[in-house]
């Protein structure tokens, strides 16, 4: 069959591409090919559904006019010259193509990693496997202290499992927070019963035919029945590379501002796609659902005749670990120092002038000319604040402008001088001394 648009991948970027294409051009014929049976489920939801709630339904997508969905089908080849996608012996012709093949969990080279009781955590299949393992386990080792690893640690320790998180870096969330900010969250994890092994490595998983027994670390051994690999992901680009579609420096499919690859009318979006970081303008793969959706939207609309531009990845991260909300956008101070002459400032403020029930710690990073490069927030009511800072950074707001930016005030809702304003004042004074 011949389609105006074929989309490979049923994750956030792929579904966004298909749906946004049909919003822009309702008469277009669109085929979505998904290797998984379930499509469009938020992977970030999975840790919280292990014990409560149920998986969301995707039945509504099947009712969208002019959208055909192939579930449980793997695209095996892309014939660029003849404009075809092959799924085994089946062929589907396209005018335009969006590759949204996502990413896969990085499996570290650990002895025993193939043992029964070792599970990654990314797909619904992983989710089901872990749920079954939990029925007969008490001790769990989580390898990796990124967002998914920490969310799983919280959910599981609240159900009285003994949790150890092993991270090769000397801090949690090493890609999103600086050490001075991560320490605050680390204390909360420890206080709530999570055993943190930072700056440590899993050297071997000890198991027999029945499953995992122990995990050998650099200095000692830990009892475990389950090992969860939360070790990050890598772009799925094999299909694109096989079709001679250019792969970029980061290992993702190289795209331009239209999310188009080096092959005309073939686009890529989401975890598999390399674009540029908004701040550094260097090649970057986002790996967050927010960037996947926006890239998918741009790719899908352009694939059916539109002309949208994607201006780079800024990666606004938000998560909650026990009672601390965490937000980060742009660069950490460590990342910024690799490219810019920069300076930082930090401030703490209560959430309300009266009847206070929370706090915010704000850290701002800026270049010596005052350009905002990154922001990190801890505390309460963080999402709207990190979103505001993401907009400020995209619009080129500098420290001076942020300091004078008017914010709303009510004594039972906010502070007259919130933590972000206080941090920007400190940072402006530091910058003024160096002029």
Structural overview:
This protein folds into three domains: 2-104 and 234-303, 3-Layer(bba) Sandwich (FAD/NAD(P)-binding domain); 107-231, FAD/NAD(P)-binding domain; 324-433, Enolase-like, domain 1 (2-Layer Sandwich). It contains ten helices and 25 strands. The chain has helices spanning 12-24, 124-134, 147-157, 179-191, 238-242, 289-303, 333-337, 383-394, 399-404, 419-433, and strands at 2-8, 30-34, 67-71, 77-79, 84-87, 90-99, 103-105, 118-120, 139-143, 162-167, 195-198, 202-208, 211-217, 221-223, 226-229, 233-235, 253-254, 266-268, 273-276, 283-284, 317-321, 324-330, 342-350, 359-367, 372-379. Strands 1, 2, 3, 4, 5, 6 and 18 form a seven-stranded mixed beta sheet that branches. Strands 8-15-9-10-11 form a five-stranded parallel beta sheet, with helices on one face. β5 (84-87) and β6 (90-99) form a beta hairpin. α1 packs parallel to α6. It is globular, with a radius of gyration of 23 Å.
């Amino acid at each position: 069959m011949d389609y105006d648009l074929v989309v490979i991948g049923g994750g956030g970027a792929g579904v966004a591409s298909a749906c946004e294409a049909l919003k822009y051009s309702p008469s277009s014929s669109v085929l979505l090919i998904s290797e998984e049976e379930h499509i469009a489920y938020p992977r970030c939801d999975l840790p919280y559904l292990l014990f409560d709630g149920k998986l969301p339904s995707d039945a509504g997508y099947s009712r969208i006019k002019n959208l055909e969905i192939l579930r449980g089908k793997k695209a095996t080849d892309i014939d660029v010259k003849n404009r075809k996608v092959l799924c085994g012996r089946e062929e589907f012709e396209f005018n335009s193509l969006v590759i949204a093949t996502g990413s896969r969990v990085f499996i570290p080279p650990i002895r025993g990693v193939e043992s029964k009781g070792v599970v990654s955590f990314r797909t619904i299949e992983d989710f089901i496997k872990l749920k079954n393992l939990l029925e007969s386990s008490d001790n769990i080792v989580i390898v990796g202290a990124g967002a998914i690893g920490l969310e799983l640690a919280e959910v599981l320790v609240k159900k009285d499992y003994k949790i150890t998180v092993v991270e090769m870096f000397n801090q949690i969330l090493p890609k999103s927070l600086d050490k001075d900010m991560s320490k605050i969250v680390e204390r909360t994890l420890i206080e709530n019963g999570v055993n943190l092994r930072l700056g440590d490595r899993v050297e071997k998983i000890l198991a027999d035919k029945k499953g995992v027994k122990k995990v050998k670390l650099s200095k000692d051994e830990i009892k475990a029945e389950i090992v969860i690999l939360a070790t990050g992901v890598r772009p799925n680009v094999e299909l694109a590379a096989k079709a001679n579609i250019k792969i970029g420096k980061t290992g993702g499919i190289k795209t331009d501002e239209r999310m188009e690859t080096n092959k005309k009318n073939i686009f890529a979006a989401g975890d598999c796609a390399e674009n540029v970081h908004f701040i550094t303008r260097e090649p970057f793969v986002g790996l967050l659902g927010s960037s996947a959706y926006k890239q998918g939207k741009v790719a899908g609309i352009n694939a059916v005749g539109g002309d949208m531009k994607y201006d780079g990845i800024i990666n606004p991260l938000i998560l909650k670990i026990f009672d601390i909300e965490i937000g980060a956008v742009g660069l950490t101070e460590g990342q910024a120092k690799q490219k810019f002459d920069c300076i930082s400032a930090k401030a703490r403020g209560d959430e309300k002038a009266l009847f206070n029930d929370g706090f915010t710690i704000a850290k701002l990073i800026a270049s010596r000319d005052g350009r905002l490069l990154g922001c990190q927030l801890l505390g309460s009511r963080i999402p709207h604040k990190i979103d505001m800072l993401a907009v400020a950074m995209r619009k080129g707001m500098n420290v001076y402008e942020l300091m004078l930016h008017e914010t709303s005030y009510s004594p039972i809702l906010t502070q007259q001088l919130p933590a972000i304003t206080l941090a920007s004042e400190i940072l402006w004074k530091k910058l003024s001394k160096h002029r």
